[in-house]
Every structure is written in C-alpha cells, then in structure tokens.
Amino acid sequence: MLLSLYSLSFSFLHHFLFSMENKYLNILSFCFSNTICGLLIVSWLARNIIHTNGLTTTLAWRRKTRKKKNQDDENKMSLLDLPDLTLDCILEKLSPSELCAMTFVCSELRDKCVSDHLWKKHMENKWGRLMGDAAIKEWKTHVATLMACLKNSNPSSYRSNTQQWRSRLAANLKPFSWLKTNHGCHNRGSSSSSPIDSVMYWYSNLESGKFWFPAQVYNRENGHVGFMMSCYDAKVRYDNKTNTFQARYSAHGRRAAEENVTWQRLRPALVETESRDLHVSDCLQGLRPGDHFEIQWRRTKEFPYGWWFGVVGHLQHCGGEENCRCISDENVVMEFRQFRPESPWKTTVLNRKDHRETGNEVSGFYGGVKKLGTEEEVSTWKRLWPSQVLD
C-alpha cells in the first residue's frame, strides 16, 4: 500500500519536476528517493491546493469582521462624551466608596470625582451634625499646620505639589483604603503624598479616625451615675468598624477615656465657650416655671464645666400655677428632677440680675445658663433620662 501511494505521487509530480530549473532537480530527486520526504511533500501540496480557496475566504471574513468591529467601537458612546451637567448628575448619585473607585478609571474622571462640590454633600449627610464651629475651627488649624509642614519640608516643590494635588489624591485613595493612609508630615513633598486642602481629604480623615475633633458627650463614661443628665466636652474620633466613637475627657488629676460612644450621645461643641470658661447668661430675666434649661456645673473649681439639664421650678412662697408670680421675682429656682428631694443637688436658686458663678465645695459650683429653645433639644435629654431616681 505504501509503495502504491509512493508510485502515484511520483507520477503526479513527474511533469512538475521537468518545469523546475536544473539546480533544484538534485535536491528534489534526493527528497523523492526517500519515502518519508516524498510523503511529506505530497501532503503539503495537497493541503495547499485543497485549502487555498478556504484560506482566502477565511482571511476575507476576518478582515470584514475586524472592520465591522472598528466601526462599532467608533459608534459607541463613552461616559466622558456625556454633557458635563449630565455626568455631574450621575456622579452625584455615587457613594463615597464608588467615587473613590471611579478615580481609577481615567485621569479625567479622577479629576471630576475628587471635586469638592461632590464631597460636600457626603460630608453634610454624614458629618454635618457634628461639624460645629469648634470642629471646623480645629480642622482649619490642622490643615494650616500640615500646609506649613509641607512647605517647610520641601519649599522648592511646594508650588508644584499644590497644583498637582488632585492627581496625588487619586493615587492614594482606594475604596475604604484610607484606613491605612499615613498623613504625617514626613514625605509631604513626594509624589505619593495626599492633598490636605480638599473636602475629600477631610472626609477620609474623619472616616479613618485620624482626626480627633471637639464634641460634647451626653452621660459620659457609659452613663456613670455621677454624670447622668449631663454633657461634657471631649475630643472624639470615629471607629469605622463599629460605627461608634472613642472619647477622651480632660479632668483635674486624670484623663478619662471611653469606647463605643454612639452617634446619639454626641453633639457639636461650642466654640464660643470653652469647658473652663464661664458662659454669659442672657436668658435669666425671661425664665419662667416649666422652662427647660442647661446650666454649667463643676464639682470643684479645678474641674472643667459640664452642662446639666434642668427645669425651672416655683419659689417656696409661690401660690401655684394660678397665682404664680415667680417671673417677677429677682430669684429663679433651678430644679434637677433626676435627683431625690433630699439630695443636695436637687435644686439651686440663682439671682436673675447679677448671677455669675455660685456654689460651694459641698454642692458644687453653678455657672452660666442656656434656655433650651427647641423641642428636639428637650426630647434628646428626655431619651437619656435615668431608669431610677438618683441620690
């Protein structure tokens, strides 16, 4: 069988060989004198003849398909082809983590996704309630310090670094990766440094817990009996894993700390009155029985003030609700109804005209007074009311 196939092949190529130039005859004669070489040559020629038309057709189909694909790609619309207003409306719907992810798509989207106007909404939605005047002032001071640190560490590159802060921001922030970002002064001039003058940077510092900001904490130290129905100044930072806060309190002779402080127990700190400053009372003349108030109180003069919740009561000689003349008296009764009647902290009497700080080492010292003007303020205190009367 093998010999028959070889003879047929040799006959088929006989005429073809005569048309070849003489210098190739010796090579071909050698190949066909060897059975294996001859079979390989015949096989190659057969495949070439059989598939020539098919190969041509395949190449033509591929060229046609590639051309159609290129045309389809040209007809596709990119996200960046949208009008700016439409694109901004889309980006405004994204969450903070999604905005961070979009910064890695391309440089144009990166510049858009780190814009302050997009992050102001997220800042207001999550942090606006706690970012009072004191916290904002603290942040501005923090930024100014870091800017000075950057400028002093590498003055020659300060201008270029400031102009390119958007690019550096996207290079550092990944979705939820800001928890590991180092925002120290060292290496501020390097290309890997993050910006410090953007709302996104502010947001990331709050989320990561790197920024301690001033706030006030209700019922401090997990509702310690000595602090029930009070609100004290503290420095707090956020714990992203538990969605709670860590608080640090400043007190005479010790520094107290507390974990797992919930959002409901926090409110903005007051910038106009520090914890050791006496608040100027401007509401005493108008207080009448039943009004809700907060008053500064401290155990000794070495301690900072806390704000304590109370209700205006009636004077002892008052005839009651129908014949009440307490509003015209020069004194006003301040009641703290969370305490028992026999408690030394149950009531105190203040002079409406010349009240400053009053008290003693036994009952403590009472400072400035604020009248609560909204139902929300009162309801917040009532939610924190102790389950039993205090001694």
Please, could you describe this protein's structure?
This is F-box domain-containing protein. Residues 76-122 form the F-box domain. Pfam families: F-box (PF00646). Keywords: Membrane, Transmembrane, Transmembrane helix. InterPro entries: F-box-like_dom_sf, F-box_dom. With 391 residues, the chain is α+β, with helices and mostly antiparallel strands. Among the domains are: 86-184 and 194-211, no CATH class; 213-268, SH3 type barrels (Roll), CATH 2.30.30; 284-383, no CATH class. It contains 14 helices and eleven strands. Strands 1, 2, 3, 4, 5, 6, 7, 8, 9, 10 and 11 form an eleven-stranded antiparallel sheet that branches. α9 crosses α10 (155-163). The chain is elongated. Residues 1-6, 12-25 and 166-194 have low confidence and may be disordered.
